């Protein structure tokens, strides 16, 4: 189907037959006329459904099917937003059809909204943030990227955003040495992170989204786990190299380098502060370091839970407000 009347947020690969995505918190929104709504989707995922600005429920998908997402609506024009809660680490989800077909909507979304990007690992995905305790549930059932610190920060700022995050991945090395060739900087270059390792993803077209602020929460997996950890100088150099790559992709964004306490090698904040100081000494005034407190994590596998994500979002919101070059209407 043609997608000209659909607004996509996040990294989507738009093909003639389908729109595909792997990243968490990707979404599509549109207007339609009718009393019911169905979408043809394929791929294992959970989605938040909003109709006319009200969250109406959750959709779970797996095999290709026409899934009913709304029924018994009042006749007339409606607005729908469907947001992916989960991360697709391997593969992607595919959108084939919307029934009834979307119709033009007016006014269009203003282009003046600020744009944020969040790059990271499972903390940025929102991994297990809705779990009732660290040992109950699975990543699929307890992760809600729409309630991650990134999505919450963007909501507070009224900003468009992307979350490009990859659970278990690090800057130099991944958690416990998994998939050593596929760290965050490499996966980041692809449109579909979950398809990249399978050889099924083209590079991402960076002209499609140019953020005003890029928040990097990377390095946790480099220093966690009972295995060897990177040389500090190697880590710092890799971080600086990644910043330079981002500068080539985007036009003068501000960078917020995030850190927190980790186990067993609690040196991430020290390393990020070192990177930030060195960047400033080189004349790069586009960086700042923000330490986030994440004690006593109660999410799945001891990840930050929802209340912690709210606290992280509050701190990041205040930090971005303090230096924003644009007037942000709350």
Automatic annotation (TrEMBL):
<protein>
    <submittedName>
        <fullName>GDSL-like Lipase/Acylhydrolase family protein</fullName>
    </submittedName>
</protein>
<keyword id="KW-0378">Hydrolase</keyword>
<feature type="domain" description="SGNH hydrolase-type esterase">
    <location>
        <begin position="118"/>
        <end position="313"/>
    </location>
</feature>
<dbReference type="InterPro" id="IPR052762">
    <property type="entry name" value="PCW_deacetylase/CE"/>
</dbReference>
<dbReference type="InterPro" id="IPR013830">
    <property type="entry name" value="SGNH_hydro"/>
</dbReference>
<dbReference type="GO" id="GO:0016788">
    <property type="term" value="F:hydrolase activity, acting on ester bonds"/>
</dbReference>
<feature type="domain" description="Carbohydrate esterase 2 N-terminal">
    <location>
        <begin position="9"/>
        <end position="99"/>
    </location>
</feature>
<dbReference type="Pfam" id="PF13472">
    <property type="entry name" value="Lipase_GDSL_2"/>
</dbReference>
<dbReference type="InterPro" id="IPR040794">
    <property type="entry name" value="CE2_N"/>
</dbReference>
<dbReference type="InterPro" id="IPR036514">
    <property type="entry name" value="SGNH_hydro_sf"/>
</dbReference>
<dbReference type="Pfam" id="PF17996">
    <property type="entry name" value="CE2_N"/>
</dbReference>
């Amino acid at each position: 189907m043609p997608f000209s009347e659909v607004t996509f947020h996040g990294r989507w690969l738009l093909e003639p037959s389908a729109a595909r995505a792997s990243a968490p918190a990707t979404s599509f929104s549109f207007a339609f006329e009718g009393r019911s709504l169905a979408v043809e989707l394929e791929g294992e995922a959970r989605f938040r459904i909003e109709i006319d600005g009200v969250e109406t429920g959750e959709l779970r998908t797996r095999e290709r099917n026409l899934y009913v997402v709304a029924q018994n609506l009042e006749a007339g024009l409606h607005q729908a937003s469907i947001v992916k809660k989960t991360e697709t680490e391997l593969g992607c989800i595919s959108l084939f059809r919307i029934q009834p077909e979307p119709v033009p909507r007016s006014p269009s979304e203003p282009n003046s909204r600020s744009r944020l990007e969040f790059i990271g690992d499972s903390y940025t995905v929102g991994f297990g943030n809705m779990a009732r305790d660290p040992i109950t549930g699975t990543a699929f059932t307890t992760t809600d990227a729409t309630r991650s610190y990134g999505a919450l920060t963007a909501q507070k700022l009224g900003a468009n955003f992307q979350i490009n995050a990859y659970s278990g991945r690090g800057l130099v090395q991944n958690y416990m040495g998994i998939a050593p060739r596929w760290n965050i900087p490499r996966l980041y270059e692809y449109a579909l992170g979950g398809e990249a390792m399978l050889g099924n993803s083209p590079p991402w077209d960076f002209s499609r989204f140019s953020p005003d602020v890029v928040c990097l929460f990377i390095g946790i997996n480099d220093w966690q786990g009972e295995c060897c950890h990177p040389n500090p100088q190697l880590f710092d150099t890799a971080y600086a190299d990644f910043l330079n790559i981002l500068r080539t992709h985007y036009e003068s964004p501000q960078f917020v380098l995030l850190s927190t306490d980790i186990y067993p090698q609690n040196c991430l904040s020290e390393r990020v502060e070192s990177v930030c100081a060195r960047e400033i000494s080189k004349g790069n005034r586009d960086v700042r370091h923000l330490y986030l407190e994440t004690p006593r994590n109660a999410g799945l596998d001891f990840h930050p839970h929802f209340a912690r994500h709210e606290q992280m979002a509050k701190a990041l919101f205040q930090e971005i407000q303090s230096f924003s070059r644009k007037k942000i209407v709350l």
